[in-house]
Amino acid sequence: MAVKTLTIDGKTISAEESATILQAAEEAGVIIPTLCHLDGIYDVGACRLCLVEIVGYTKLMSACTTRVREGMEVTTNSERLRNYRRMTLELLFAERNHICAVCVANGHCELQALAYEQGMDHVRYDYCYPKWEVDASHRLFGMDHNRCILCTRCVRACWHIEGAGTKNVSGRGNQSRIICDLNDNWGVSKTCTSCGKCVMACPTGALFHQGSTAAEMQRDRSKLEFIVNAREKKQWSV
Amino acid sequence: MERIKIATVWLGGCSGCHMSFLDLDEFLIELADMVDIVYSPVVDCKEYPEGVAVCLIEGAVCNEDNLELLHKIRARTQVLISFGDCAITANVPAMRNPLGPDNVANVLQCAYIDHAQDNPRVPMSAGIVPTLLTRVMPVHEAVVVEYYLPGCPPSADHIKALLTQLLGGSTPHLEGKQIKFG
Fold first, then answer.
1. What is the average pLDDT across B71-78?
2. pTM flag (> 0.90)
3. Which residues from chain B sit within 8 angstroms of residue A106, using beta carbons?
4. Which CATH number fits domain A102-224: 3.30.70.100, 3.30.70.20, 3.40.50.300, 3.30.70.1230?
5. Contact A40, A161 (CB under 8 A)
6. Smallest Cβ distance to A99: which of B91, B99, B148?
């Protein structure tokens, strides 16, 4: 297996050629903020929080979808990157109706945690206040589009861990939204196995267990990790 | 030493931030030695005075009275602090905004007619009951705000941290665990 040598924040490291910048950084102990990334499912670079600077590129690149190259010089934390990260977070908050005080995920929310980490004490943009519905038709779970950031973790967990293919993305731009099957209510979906992996994967309060109230929604990712681990390490014989 | 003039104001919010302010407990006594609270829901003063150094603003901008008072506060105050989630994000009061341009008529209808047990009637009294704005706003959308103290409500510890920095003459700066929404 070929190994590439590169620098991340001035630190010389080596990584497998198939590794992404994010994986290489993690191994070297450099923390890059992420939101749409979830260990075990493929990356799509949707949230733009892991953007990094690479010498020779004028564009910022997402660390989760860019592979390492020989001699690459990567910066993960600069004034410019901090500005973009804060801007991205503020735009996520402004785009839909994130009301932390009444949210099921309050205190256990990855969007909130990242906002604190980046020092976001207010949003500089005008809030959009769009009208979105809540799908509470499923027996066990609910989906509140007001809190969705379109990271697509649920879609990827549904297709690539469970293999059910219930969740999808519909629409364009700020009208994009997560749908079940061909835009049916979740409760009548014939493909949903009610496994709850999408709920485990969700970083905000958009997917929740029925009956949970403000600040009650804590996610258990251990099942996702267990399945992915067992699959990758071929611990299950078929 | 001349005491610093401080005001606190309660716009469209639940008064929870002011309750949290009262949770400062013994720090309130220290504070009383340093500042004069010249205008506040807990002070009997009808008109917002001139020459206020710092004003903590609780609540979102929901009606014409809120907006008028806010412009007066800005003109008469050196430093404005958005105090709590309603002031910073418009929070729960803004939950009527997604209902669209007719949200005022809709929420009044729902609250005072549809769910009224006796005498269903929308309260109307020119000059007394302020007209609701069509869109609830965070404070910084209406006027320039210097500092932000999030939380629903902000904890007494965070209020103390910010006030201590400010009264100590340094630029207030909250970070990490001192920032908390909800």
1. 98
2. yes
3. 181-182
4. 3.30.70.20
5. yes
6. B91
